[in-house]
Amino acid sequence: MTAGSSAAEWAREAGRLRWWQHIAAVVGVQTPEMRRKARHVQRRTAGSVGEQRTDAMLQPLLAEGWHVLPDRRVGRSANVDHILVGPDGQVFTLDTKLWSGKWWVRVVGGRLVHGDHDRDRQVDTALWETAEVSKALGGVRVTPLVVVHNAPVEGGGFRVRGVSVMPADRLLELLRHNVGPADPCKAAVLFRLAEIQLPSYT
To answer: Domain holding 123: CATH number?
Structure first.
């Protein structure tokens, strides 16, 4: 499973129309359900593109002792975009967002917002995913990151309720800055455990 695969598959599945919706589309009629599906497909497609961009950015880390696991299953039916194991054995979850560059990403009243859109649910999701990954790895500490493509992020990045939110172009800099002394054995064990406990999302 490659980065963005599950989001792309969800978009394809969500975009399938019923026979009568095809007829309605041909004659230029859009039902509320068709508009809802179109918005859903747009979000999922953007998610897939964002995950692929993040995956490409992470590739240089492989030569530096990092381990990258894209699109892993957590819980019963959810997925985490990327799990990273650093050369020192630190574990990170990455939740990628591809948001419009028209508006800033910031914190207002303790909540994550993008322009006028409340995005605080993304913080809850990142915290839940991180807790699930930690549980699967025997309780090791896992750090949640939200990586934002396109939209500017206030202050070049910030933390909200323990989740770091950063612009994509600062991701590698911040990861490298926070890595400690290399512990290849610990990193390899955690990577292998993550591979087993958190399979590819299918």
So the answer is: 3.40.1350.70
